[in-house]
Write a structure and sequence with these properties.
By secondary structure, the protein is mainly alpha-helical. The chain is built from 10 helices and no strands. The longest helix has 25 residues.
Length: 255
């Protein structure tokens, strides 16, 4: 129990740090928890990691909120759409085969990595290429898609949200990270509501993990705000590459 808890807390700290900067902390936290606690059902693992993810993301969002101006109209549409889509995704965990979804995600991630690497100005400066009406429409659409993904699978959600806020909505990396944190709070909360209502949360692990995830998030957000867009861009590429490796392993070696 003690060794398990120490390892889980270390994973939660690392996940919080990564998630606060570019999202994708679940790529570390979820697989680690599955490995350390193999005796529990997958649904219980998914439900348990939602608590540290929610708490850490909330702290990071608070740090960003003190220095970033939010677009509340776009944010509200995205949050509402993502919340209800995440509830549906969590409900669908046992009904949809992830093996069908993961190859599609892998292709998308490779394209994202290539585009971000070669487009040096991607996310460095904020620009508004769309009318407010189109921004709201895109925010709602992507909120539904990514919210559903977070409830169903989870890892990498923060990175996908950042990509959407930059590529589709015209934000820079710092602004995208800040807005993504708020939406991610909504998706985590929705999934947690479902998993907790069905008894799939291991609180004896979730609470200590939440403390360490908060610490990691606090440090990660502070570093991101200090270093700015170029630093976040590099970190984003690293995390996307790690995500590609993770999904490639799942697709080609785990069947």
């Amino acid at each position: 129990m003690t060794t398990e808890l120490i390892l889980l807390c270390l994973a939660a700290f690392g996940a919080g740090f990564i998630d606060a900067i570019v999202g994708g902390g679940g790529l570390l936290q979820t697989p680690a928890t599955l490995l350390i606690l193999p005796q529990y059902p997958v649904a219980s693992i998914f439900g348990t990691v939602k608590i540290p993810s929610l708490m850490g993301t909330s702290v990071a969002a608070y740090k960003y909120a003190k220095q970033v101006k939010f677009n509340f109209k776009v944010l509200a549409i995205c949050v509402v759409a993502a919340f209800f889509a995440s509830l549906l995704g969590a409900y669908s965990v046992s009904m949809i085969n992830n093996k069908v979804i993961k190859p599609i995600i892998l292709v998308v991630l490779v394209l994202v990595a290539i585009y971000t690497y070669f487009n040096k100005q991607f996310g460095i400066h904020q620009h508004k290429a769309h009318s407010l009406k189109k921004q709201l429409l895109l925010a709602g659409l992507f909120g539904l898609i990514i919210g559903f993904y977070d409830g169903l699978i989870g890892p990498g959600t923060g990175s996908f949200l950042i990509l959407v806020f930059i590529g589709a909505l015209g934000f820079d990396f710092v602004g995208a990270s800040a807005h993504a944190k708020i939406v991610n709070i909504a998706t985590n909360l929705a999934a947690l509501i479902y998993f907790s209502s069905t008894g799939h949360v291991l609180f004896q692990y979730a609470i200590p993990m939440a403390v360490f995830n908060i610490l990691g998030s606090f440090l990660g957000a502070k570093l991101a705000l200090l270093k700015g867009n170029k630093f976040i861009r590099i970190f984003f590429l690293i995390v996307v590459f790690g995500t590609i490796l993770r999904f490639a392993y799942d697709v080609f070696f785990r069947g």
